[in-house]
Amino acid sequence: MALARPGRTPDRSESRAAMDDEYDVIVLGTGMKDTLLSGLMSVAGKKVLHMDRNSYYGGESASLNLNQMFEKYGNGEKPPAELGSSRDYNIDLIPKFMMASGKLVRMLLYSKTTHYLEFKQIDGSFVYNKGKVHKVPVTETEALASGLMGLWEKRRFRNFLIYVQEYDAANASTHKGRDLSRLSSADLIKDFGLQQETVDFIGHAIALNHNDEYLTKPAAELVKRCQLYSLSLAQYGKSPYIYPLYGLGELPQAFSRLSAVHGGVYMLNKKVDKIEYDESGRVCGVTSEGETAKCKMVIGDPSYFLADGKVKQVGQVIRMVCIMSHPVPNTNNSDSCQIIIPQSQVGRQNDIYITCLGASNSVAPAGKYIVIVSSTVETAEPVKELSPALKLLGKPDKIFALLNNVYVPANDFAKDGCFITSSFDASSHFESSVNDVLAVYEQIMSTLPPEERKLIDLDHLPAQE
Amino acid sequence: MAPKKVLLKVIILGDSGVGKTSLMNRYVNQKFSNQYKATIGADFLTKEIQVDERLVTMQIWDTAGQERFQSLGVAFYRGADSCVLVFDVNVAKTFENLDSWREEFLLQAGPRDPEAFPFVVLGNKVDLDARIVSQKRALSWCQSKNNIPFFETSAKDNINIEQAFEVIARNALAQERVEDIYLPDTVDLSDQKDKQSAQNCAAC
């Protein structure tokens, strides 16, 4: 019988055929931002080819097992047997939590990727003050009992919170005569007569700013961030954060699957040799192992554009990954938590964050904890900068130090057709990451003919089945 | 006590073009299309079935085409209760590759007891007249891997599909252990409180 049968076994010829094809978009790197863009482009009907030089998903935002971790950062060491099974570990390279009511949650609902993922709330949120770790109060009772501030200060703090809670940009009567688009954050706080320590608490432990730049900026943003914190906290109660089971590396895999389900072609372990440009400097393809796939645009993380000089370094982030056999001391034995060390408490310009996760988040074997200490680098001795935080941990079983350069795009996407995401910043959650994705998405849309533009409306989500 | 509702995650593996999506579609939607296109738009399908006293929801996961260049991530394999290995009886290579698909599954999914994990092998496209892999050869491979159940199927002519999936469900159910029943207290993202209702219950 001469029925045409597709004889497709994965071999060189099929790869050649796929590389021979022409794509609307080639995406380089499977980090969380790039996979989300890949998914959005596939859903918008674009023909997508997605490559990653690594054999695993996630790029800089992957979650690695113990063997991968030692291979990459162990300086030739082998994982010791007492740490347990490699596959029980999912160690995030970028430590972040998700705000329960934040933009990433909206993006997951919007893209209907929630059914690939399961989440748990993070058990607690703590803040370092005068050498001690305090729970960030989440109820009025906790606030009254907290040693963080005196009685009178608590009343002033409460007045501030009530103002923030009631503030609605669209309703002038809630503004109480203040124009938050002009008034600076510092001046708004001054209006409530708050002490410096309370200001730090609001700005860093609630609004989650990682440095003090917000003080001179309009207070509207501060209020928005405080509202996001309390709305997120109200969702599940123990902390404003949620976190995916098996680690953050699940996010890029969910977005990749979304892209694949809509036709995206996936190639891991694919060396990217060269990005090809035409004589006008516009991107026209990507070459890998002697084969060139053609495309109209390229999306990718900065690591793929270093050689072409299309990104610039704006700083460094230091992340110390600790494997421990005990939870972080003075956190009520929380299985998972965050501790914020505001910069002013330790004489820095940037906050230090500590995140702790364990077996209950499916990122470590029973009895082990993954604790990551991170901050923006300020000196030539980044590891030393984190010592105030490391002192709080007790003795870890193993420490890895990861120093990452932070890159931002320095190209003209309208001219070269390259849409480059920024490196992950030191912030403790994904709000800025999703903003980056949305900004790049808008850039892409701005270069398409009007009839092909598709807008994302995170305020009006489609119904979930 | 009412019989407990069970959710089984079943993943289908095998080379591109052996009929994974078609098998899934035939079983769940009773549909078949002769027109081949590399999988696009297939995510997972669910089907409720009754196995003895128990109501079982089978959630059958397609590869979404990510198997073509060995690019299935570990998340795809995670928590699988059963793995269906599919080959095309008319293409020898697809049968020879079963070994590596099985290895890949055991490596990525890491079941506690790999020897006892419930695989099922389907030799698909028996409706075609170009058979190359004999029943004997397939059976002997299955026997060498701890007696994996083997079915010869045709998604096109609806041969053996129901029977195969019933065995898939039964064997997966028989594997249920205490640790599988433990469900962490996960949260439901689609049930978001808005600002108003959050304010009413906010503490301060």
Automatic annotation (TrEMBL), chain A:
| Entry's Gene Ontology molecular function annotations | Rab GDP-dissociation inhibitor activity
Read off the Pfam families from this record: GDI
InterPro entries in the record: FAD/NAD-bd_sf (IPR036188), GDP_dissociation_inhibitor (IPR018203), RabGDI (IPR000806)
Coiled-coil regions listed: none
BP GO terms, sorted: protein transport; small GTPase-mediated signal transduction; vesicle-mediated transport
SUPFAM superfamilies, A to Z = FAD/NAD(P)-binding domain
One GO term of the cellular component aspect?
cytoplasm
Protein family according to the UniProt entry: Belongs to the Rab GDI family.
Query: In its UniProt entry, what is this protein called?
Result: Rab GDP dissociation inhibitor
From TrEMBL, chain B:
A Pfam match = Ras
What is the official name of this protein in its record? Uncharacterized protein
What's in the keyword line of the UniProt record? GTP-binding, Lipoprotein, Nucleotide-binding, Prenylation
InterPro entries hit by this protein: P-loop_NTPase, Small_GTP-bd, Small_GTPase
Quote the CDD domains the UniProt record gives. Rab7
- Family matches, as PANTHER family: RAB FAMILY (PTHR47981), RAS-RELATED PROTEIN RAB-7A (PTHR47981:SF20)
PROSITE patterns for the chain? RAB, RAS, RHO
Q: Single Gene Ontology BP term?
A: phagosome-lysosome fusion
What does UniProt list as this organism's lineage? Eukaryota, Haptista, Haptophyta, Pavlovophyceae, Pavlovales
Single GO term (MF): GTP binding
Superkingdom per UniProt: Eukaryota
Give the species this sequence originates from: Diacronema lutheri
Q: Which family does it belong to?
A: Belongs to the small GTPase superfamily. Rab family.
Signal peptide segment: none
User: What GO cellular component entries does it have?
Assistant: late endosome; lysosome; phagocytic vesicle
